[in-house]
């Protein structure tokens, strides 16, 4: 049986995927709290919405397609929820061929006064981080 936390977190990441995939930069950024953060092997930490906007712009400019995020596990305690999620997306390489980048993310969300959830922290862990590939 799927928990309420799993359903809530899957709905939130589905909203993010839909906005991001549509190129709706502001909509994807607003799904994070004002002081949210993204920690990623794909670039410098993004601290706050301004830097999250920059990071999302870089990801959109990279031409990612077919983004998928599946919540594997989630829990909630009061106004905080977290999930472990599997992610994958296809990027064009230097020859235009699509390569799949995948990994696991840990996400923390905060319940807002209006009853909606916002991502607060996302930590991405690539299956093939750049340092592993370059060795």
Q: What tags apply to this protein structure?
A:
30% helix; alpha+beta; 44% strand; Nuclear Transport Factor 2, Chain: A; 135 residues
Kindly describe this structure.
- By secondary structure, this protein is of the alpha+beta class.
- It has a single domain (4-134), classed as Roll (Nuclear Transport Factor 2, Chain: A).
- It has 4 helices and 6 strands, in the order ααββαββββα.
- It has helices at residues 4-21, 25-29, 49-61, 130-134; strands spanning 32-39, 46-47, 65-77, 80-92, 98-111, 117-126.
- Strands 2-1-6-5-4-3 form a 6-stranded mixed beta sheet, covered by helices on one side.
- A hairpin with a 2-residue loop joins strand 3 and strand 4 (80-92).
In CATH, the architecture is Roll
Using the coordinates shown, work out and report the CATH topology: Nuclear Transport Factor 2, Chain: A
Helix and strand composition category: alpha+beta
How are helices and strands ordered from N to C? HHEEHEEEEH
Fraction of residues in helices?
25-40%
Question: CATH class, anyone?
Answer: Alpha Beta
Topology:
Elements lengths: L3 H18 L3 H5 L2 E8 L6 E2 L1 H13 L3 E13 L2 E13 L5 E14 L5 E10 L3 H5 L1
Summed up, what is this model?
With 135 residues, the chain is α+β, with helices and mostly antiparallel strands.
């Amino acid at each position: 049986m799927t928990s309420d936390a799993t359903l809530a977190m899957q709905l939130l990441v589905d909203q993010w995927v839909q906005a991001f995939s549509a190129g709706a930069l502001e909509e994807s950024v607003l799904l994070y709290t004002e002081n949210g953060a993204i920690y990623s092997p794909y670039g410098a930490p993004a601290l706050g919405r301004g830097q999250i906007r920059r990071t999302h712009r870089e990801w959109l400019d990279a031409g990612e397609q077919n983004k998928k995020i599946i919540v594997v596990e989630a829990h909630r305690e009061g106004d905080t929820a977290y999930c472990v999620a599997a992610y994958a997306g296809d990027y064009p390489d230097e020859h235009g061929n699509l390569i799949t980048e995948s990994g696991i993310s840990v996400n923390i969300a905060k319940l807002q006064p209006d009853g909606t959830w916002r991502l607060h922290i996302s930590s991405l862990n690539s299956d093939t981080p750049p340092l592993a590939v370059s060795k």
